[in-house]
Amino acid sequence: MIVIPLKEGENIERALKRFKRKFEKTGVVKELRSRQAYTKPSVERRTEIKKAIYIQQMQREED
Predict the structure, then answer these.
(1) With 90 as the cut, is the pLDDT of residue 1 above it?
(2) Which HAMAP family does this one have (predicted)?
(3) With b meaning 16 or more CB within 10 Å and e meaning fewer, what string describes 12-34?
């Protein structure tokens, strides 16, 4: 359960923004979307490899 303590005199919009950020970091929505459809393990592996290759290329470009 996410708890956002309100600071004295804090704007409700700012507190709501903090809540949304915390909620997004938990990854609940992302997991729900991924569970809507089954993906084969081979497809998951392939996407992980593609992500890893992409990250490596980005790191090489930085240097």
Answers:
(1) no
(2) Ribosomal_bS21
(3) eeeeeebeeeeeeeeeeeeeeee
Half-sphere exposure (Cβ direction) of 63: Cα atoms closer than 13 Å: 5
State percent of the chain over pLDDT 90. 81
Burial of 4 (C-beta count, 10 Å sphere; 0-12/13-18/19+):
middle
pTM: 0.56
Evaluate whether residue 5 is within a structural domain.
Answer: no
Q: Is residue 1 part of a domain?
A: no
Angle between helix 12-26 and 28-35 (nearest 10): 50
